[in-house]
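WARN retry 2 of 3 for item q-0093 after timeout on previous attempt; input resubmitted unchanged.
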Amino acid sequence: MSERKLIIKQFLSRFFRNYDLKNEEDIFALGFVNSLLAMQLVGFIEKEFGITVNDDDLDLDNFRTITRIDRLIARKIPA
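OK item q-0093 returned
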C-alpha cells in the first residue's frame, strides 16, 4: 500500500473502529460516512496533502474508496 493510501486509511480508521477497511471498499455503501465526516475528510485531505478540493471535485465518486481518494489527490498535487 502506498504511503498516501496508508495516511488516508489511518484517518478513516479513527471513525471505523474495529473494521479493517480495504482500498476498494465503498465507505458510503458501508454506512460509515455521514455529512459531517465527509466534510472532515475533505478538510483532512486539503491540509494533509496541501491541495484545494474545488466544488467540481466534490463528486461522491471521488471519495467512495481509498483508491479513488488517492487518485483525486494525485490529480491535484502539482507535478
